[in-house]
């Protein structure tokens, strides 16, 4: 018996960005330097079982027929655990740090480009990103090598 499998190619390009800037500030810098119009996406990436949320910014480039997403890779927040006791309840608060793509913990943000992007355009974008003073570095990431790439599909 012959088994058929269907493999879907990743139809997006991924760029990793290292910076210490906040997400809204990075979106502003991208708008200024790449001539984009990133705006806050209507939804964040929320994971109920993890109690974390990752901010997303979106830019629709109708001229080139691509959609760009700026996605935060880090969530830093507080978690509270309530321990019931007989007379008094005891609560403990601690800070947590979670990653969207855990195998890329050193990446602060991902720039996901959905649509056809030539290699020349990709490297031109990376060069423009690396020329922004607040960005430490940026580089192309092959999504097929990521174990948790499904978190980038929304």
Topology of helices and strands:
Elements: E1 12-19, H1 23-34, E2 39-40, E3 45-47, E4 52-54, E5 56-61, E6 66-72, E7 74-83, E8 90-99, E9 109-114, H2 119-130, E10 135-141
Antiparallel strand pairs: 1-9, 1-10, 2-5, 3-4, 5-6, 6-9, 7-8
User: Please, how many helices?
Assistant: 2
What low-confidence regions span 5 or more consecutive residues with pLDDT below 50?
4-9
Return the CATH architecture.
2-Layer Sandwich
Q: How many runs of DSSP E, i.e. beta strands?
A: 10
Strand order of the largest sheet: 2-5-6-9-1-10
Mean pLDDT: 82
Spatial shape: elongated
How much beta, percentage-wise? Answer: 35-45%
CATH fold naming: TATA-Binding Protein
Protein described:
With 154 residues, the chain is an alpha+beta fold. Helix content is 16%, strand content 40%. The protein has one domain: TATA-Binding Protein, CATH 3.30.310. The chain has 2 helices and 10 strands. Strand 3 and strand 4 (52-54) form a beta hairpin. The longest helix has 12 residues, at 23-34. The relative contact order is 0.26.
């Amino acid at each position: 018996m012959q088994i058929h499998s269907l493999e879907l190619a990743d139809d997006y390009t991924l760029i990793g960005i290292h910076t210490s800037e906040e997400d809204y500030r990075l979106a502003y810098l991208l708008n200024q330097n790449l001539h984009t119009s990133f705006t806050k996406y209507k939804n964040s990436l929320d994971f109920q079982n993890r109690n974390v949320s990752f901010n997303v910014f979106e830019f629709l480039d109708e001229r080139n027929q691509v959609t760009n997403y700026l996605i935060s890779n880090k969530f830093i927040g507080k978690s509270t655990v309530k321990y019931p006791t007989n007379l008094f309840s005891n609560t403990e608060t601690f800070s947590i740090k979670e990653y969207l793509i855990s195998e890329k913990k050193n990446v602060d943000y991902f720039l996901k480009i959905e649509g056809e992007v030539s290699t020349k355009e990709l490297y031109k974008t990376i060069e423009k990103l690396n020329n922004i003073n607040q960005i430490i570095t940026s580089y192309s990431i092959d999504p097929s090598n990521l174990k948790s790439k499904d978190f980038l599909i929304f």
